[in-house]
Amino acid sequence: MSVSIVASRYAKSLIELAKEKNVLEAVYQDMQLFLGIAKENRGLMLALKSPVVRHEKKLAILKAIFEDKVNTVTFAIFNIITKKNRESILDAIAEEFVLAYNDFQGIQKAIITTPSELTEELRVQFTQIVASATGKSVQLEEKIDPSLIGGYLLRVNDRQIDASIKNRLNQLKLELTQ
Questions:
Q1: 3-class SS at 155?
Q2: What are the per-10-residue average pLDDT scores of the chain (178 residues)?
Q3: pTM for this structure?
């Protein structure tokens, strides 16, 4: 079974448990915290994915880092996942949980990449474009990439609109070389 399917199943179970215990927001914040720490600390994920490190040691690592920082429901899930020998996909489970939470709350994440910082007016326009297309409230993540020269790159789920000058120049270059 693929990692994404297994991670999705764990995430859905965790969402249901968190809703049942009325700690959905706290568990969401915990998953965000875990993802942040996992991205900043490559060694943590290497240890969790390592077949050489014993499962008891992996649980001890998670306990040392997270036990006093996360909700008891979240830590109980960490404990269960480790006992089921699935700690190597904990990051995928956390990502799937965030996606499921956003879907449950009606939130659509969109990534806008521009060559310079967006003005408030443009930020509102992009948010409205995505909101009207998806019918959900929008969480806009902004990235800056000076190599785009001008224009923008808008990514929503697996769809992408590339209206950058860099892309147009590349298309023109291809047309001229044919």
A1: strand
A2: 89 94 96 95 93 92 94 94 93 95 94 94 94 93 92 92 90 88
A3: 0.81
Domain positions in the chain are: 3-103, 106-177
Contact 5, 91 (CB under 8 A): no
Fold of 3-103: Peroxidase; domain 1 (1.10.520)
- The confidence score (pLDDT) of residue 158 equals 87
Find the DSSP H helices in 2-161: 3-20, 24-40, 42-49, 55-66, 72-83, 90-105, 120-134
Specify which residues 138 forms β-bridges with. 108
Q: Round to whole Å and give the CA distance between 89 and 34.
A: 12
Locus of tokens 């990692």:
3
